[in-house]
TrEMBL record, chain A:
Locations listed in the record: Cell membrane
Topological relation to the membrane, as annotated: Multi-pass membrane protein
Alphabetically ordered keywords of this record: Cell membrane, Membrane, Transmembrane, Transmembrane helix, Transport
Entries under Pfam families matching the protein: BPD_transp_1, BPD_transp_1_N
The family this protein is said to belong to: Belongs to the binding-protein-dependent transport system permease family.
Keyword Transmembrane: yes
Protein name in the entry: ABC transporter permease
ABC transmembrane type-1 domain residues: 95-304
Domain of life: Bacteria
TrEMBL record, chain B:
Species for this entry: Brevibacillus porteri
One Pfam short name: OppC_N
Protein known as: Glutathione ABC transporter permease GsiD
Signal peptide (residue range): 1-35
Membrane protein topology class: Multi-pass membrane protein
Transmembrane segment boundaries: 76-102, 123-147, 240-263
Length: 313, 277
């Protein structure tokens, strides 16, 4: 396990390097002069020259990259061109909001998905199964912004209710936070549930066919002992895989959900950066999300060995 | 191929979805004939109306006919979806063939690059690319195309690895066939099955990403109608004219659902592991 961990972490180094090069290149692929694009058409030549100098854009590319990456490694993500604020504190502050939203969404998704996925597998071709399959097919086919918009529409038309505008921290005011996050988290939850339910169903269908389940049945175990005690752990590898992949999609999808529900999370921060052509913000934000995504994948790999001790790397 | 045709025709979902998709393509191609109005024409006296004889699905905030905009929107979605997948297939296949066939450091290099692309959530990478290239139809296609290259590279590489040492490839090598000939005439035809499955599954994802980018205002630009953009514009008027949101949602759901079910059906037909389930 220890040597695997070292190997796995070491294999991340070239990937992280690649990610940083790719994101760095983004700024330099912008057609034209990045400084004048960021400052807009009314910028004076002096202002452009000053921005070029302060961001080091007049240096050779390799020096610029080295300067940027040393800064990142020291926790210096630079400052926003638009507001002049330090980027990293902003990212961390907004990531806390995105995390609350994501965790809430994942919880809703899993609570829906796992019981219904199992139920639909052990009662294959029943009415429950058909409902579950229609739900999963719709869940992966309707875009998250459409689900969110329809939820907003439904709640405002039929209940005359809108989520509060001011976002509060869950630890400070759980009830108010619940009101703020319930619709966006449900939007995310439906998408999560569809994917996890689909995978839970197919994983359970496969496991329930195995010989050891037949043996457990022959020993006279009750249906639910078999499902919980024997099948669950053996079906959980693909479920964990899809769950891990989804956390990445949620981090990306949060861009849309946050925009739709006006939640000032990391996704909205990146989007504001794109709208305002604030490239340091875009770079910093995208880099941060990619880092989190890579770490989540690492964590998932480690969880595999814990779920299934037969997996040895 | 004839067994494929037989299996395809025996699969009701596949047949149903392909008819549905064919109808959608026909709608897209015949948009100028089918649409009752010009999708950008504004009928100032008929703003945000419900359905009527003249405007079957009603009108939007500028008095534009919703049905016509949805019909033209099908054009945008399908063109962007198919072209983006084409971009990913062409580059993904090329990289996958090269990586799988040559192995060693070339393989290592290509696959590490793909790992890097994989390290980004899909929509975020597409957003970053559009942020650089600027919005617009062509750039949207490129962004979605680039994002999906790694999936195709992995699929093709895996298939190449499993067949590159088979006897028929070896005999081609023995008779002195050139490397491009081996790659494109011997190996490529035998990776088409996984490629086809992956492409049909990728189209729905590409359409989803396009609509999401347009929803954020970074994909297809107004006044061109796109379903994502229509939903985004309609949000401000949702209580006055819910149809402005509901109809594009229905159109999008039907299209993506048909693509997804078609992709699943093709996989069931072509992938021996799914056969008979």
């Amino acid at each position: 396990m220890g040597s695997y961990l070292i190997k796995r972490v070491a294999s991340l180094i070239p990937i992280l390097f690649g990610i940083s090069v790719l994101i760095f290149t983004i700024l330099h692929l912008v057609p034209g002069d990045p400084a004048s694009i960021m400052l807009g058409t009314n910028a004076t030549p002096e202002a452009i020259a000053a921005l070029n100098k302060s961001m080091g854009l007049d240096q050779p590319l390799i020096n610029q990259y080295l300067h940027w990456i040393t800064g990142i490694l020291q926790g210096n993500f630079g400052v926003s061109v638009h507001t002049g604020e330090e980027i990293l504190p902003q990212i961390l502050k907004r990531f806390a909001i995105t995390m609350q939203l994501t965790v809430f969404g994942v919880l809703i998704g899993w609570v829906l998905a796992i019981p219904f996925g199992i139920l639909s597998a052990i009662r294959a071709h029943s009415k429950t199964d058909i409902v579950v399959r229609v739900f999963t097919l719709l869940g992966i086919s309707v875009p998250n912004f459409a689900i969110g918009t329809l939820l907003l529409l439904g709640f405002s038309l039929y209940f005359n209710w809108f989520p509060p505008i001011d976002v509060v921290n869950f630890w400070e005011d759980p009830i108010e936070a619940f009101k703020v996050f319930i619709l966006p988290a449900t939007t995310m939850g439906i998408v999560v549930a569809a994917g996890v339910m689909r995978m839970t169903r197919s994983a359970f269908l496969e496991t329930m066919d195995k010989d050891f389940i037949r043996t457990a049945r022959a020993k006279g175990n009750s249906k639910w002992t078999i499902v919980i005690g024997h099948a669950f752990r053996n079906s959980s590898i693909p479920i964990v895989t899809i769950a891990g992949m989804q956390i990445g999609y949620l981090l990306g999808g949060s861009v849309i959900v946050e925009q739709l529900f006006s939640i000032p999370g990391l996704g909205q921060y990146i989007l504001e950066g794109i709208y305002q052509r604030d490239y340091p913000v875009v770079q910093g934000g995208v880099l941060f999300v990619a880092l989190v995504f890579v770490l989540v994948n690492l964590l998932i790999d480690l969880i595999y060995t814990w779920i299934d001790p037969r997996i040895k790397y | 191929m004839s067994t494929f045709r037989k299996r395809f025709l025996a699969n009701k979902t596949a047949v149903f979805c392909s008819i549905l998709l064919a109808l959608l393509c026909l709608t897209a191609v015949l948009a100028p004939v089918l649409a009752p109005h010009d999708p950008t024409q504004m009928f100032q006296d008929h703003r945000m109306e419900g359905s009527s004889g003249e405007f079957l699905l009603g009108t939007d905030q500028f008095g534009r006919d919703l049905l016509s905009r949805i019909i033209y929107g099908a054009r945008v979605s399908l063109v962007v979806g198919l072209s983006a997948v084409l971009v990913s297939v062409v580059f993904g296949t090329l990289f996958g063939l090269i990586a799988g066939y040559f192995g060693r450091w070339i393989d290592g290099f290509i696959m590490r690059c793909m790992d890097v692309l994989f390290a980004f959530p899909e929509i975020l990478l597409a957003l970053a690319i559009v942020a650089v290239l600027g919005p617009g139809t062509f750039n949207t296609i490129m962004a979605i195309g680039i994002v999906n290259i790694p999936i195709f590279t992995r699929t093709v590489r895996g298939a190449v690895l499993s067949i590159k040492n088979l006897e028929y490839v070896e005999s081609a090598r023995a008779i002195g066939a050139s490397t491009p000939r081996i790659l494109f005439q011997e190996i490529l035809p035998n990776v088409t099955a996984p490629l086809l499955v992956q492409s049909s599954l990728a189209i729905s994802g590409a359409i989803l990403t396009e609509s999401a980018l347009s929803f954020l205002g970074l994909g297809i630009q107004p006044p061109d109608p796109s379903w994502g953009g229509m939903i985004s514009e309609a949000r401000r008027y949702m209580e006055l004219a819910p149809g402005m949101i509901i109809w594009p949602c229905v159109a999008m759901t039907v299209t993506i659902l048909a693509c997804n079910m078609f992709g699943d059906a093709v996989r069931d037909i072509l992938d021996p592991r799914h056969r008979g389930k």
